[in-house]
Amino acid sequence: MINDVLGIINLGEREEYIKELTEVRPIAAVPFGGRYRMIDFTLSNMINSGIDYIGIILKDKFHSLNDHIGPGKSWDLDRKTGGLRMLYPNIEPNPTQIAIGDLPVLRDNFNFVLRTSKTHVLFTRSSYIGNIDYNPAYRHHVDSDSDITILTRHIIRGRDRVDLLGLDIVSQENGELGIGRNLGNQDEFDLSVEMYFLKKEVFVEIVTEAVEAGKEAYLKRAIIDRLRNYQVSTFTLDSDILPIHSLQSYYNASMQILDPAYADYLFYRHGKIYTKVKDAPSTMYLGKTDVNNTLIANGCIIEGTVENSIIFRGVTIGRNTVVRNSIVFQDVTIGEDCNINNCVFDKNVVVGNRKVLMGDGGLPYVIKKGVVIK
Questions:
Q1: Where are the domains of the chain?
Q2: How far apart are the first and last CA of the chain?
Q3: Is 97 a residue whose pLDDT tops 60?
């Protein structure tokens, strides 16, 4: 088990292609899989691998994340030594002076890194989810005496993977490793999953140089620009990774867990995925209910037909209503005699009787949080 690593989760992800779900929350707090949030996977992977001191670099819209994580009790991170630290941005009195990027946040909270006795850093995102054991990658990082180890996932038939367009790939030029952009021209490549092991002194050096130079706003860019200055290696993960950076990739990833074998991998392979505990009664199935190939959380009332869908806690689906190929977040109420297909309902949506809501099959139709459709 890893006991000499500081975990840093960077929430400065791009959100322009998933803004329908991130208008009121960061990607890390987007609900997933009926009862989880995206960040649950990263936190659980770190804890299951033995990383017990974790910092989260926050950007904005962090209230829902604070409510979900709290002091970290659900992940055994509510400790006097180590545990969980939220790294907040400084709030400027003039909104036009708010700093751009994650480097200013890290700069303002840098004592968090300097004071720790850990000698290595795992720097990662919350938008790449999987069930990962970090121990083999860490052993490779230490045994190879690498300054930086880039974690990758080998991709085949890459031209068919539209969901990977625009993501980082690890390339080699003139014997040097670099990180480029996937433009869909390669059929086989190593995808960077934006997870890096670094020696602590290397991490401190990169951040200090980047802050002093003032040319970069983002830590990932600072690391990539300085790869040639260090001993860099790669480690290929054997765990499947779901990159979630758009509404379509979120929808496709969600639908994958309807396969029991994939769900068993994602939630249990290298350890259980933990989340905030919420007590609720069992789901009630009333009348002529028909449920097929669907994941339904507790606390729901189902009176209609549900197929190929994911239903979160506290959802009510009325009589004679049909819900297909959809994702329904917590505390949504759908009335009677409705026809719902290829939709994503955010929290607290209310849909009246006899409504028809459908996506086009290529992109789900999103109903934003708290919307009432009479």
A1: 5-268, 284-373
A2: 54
A3: no
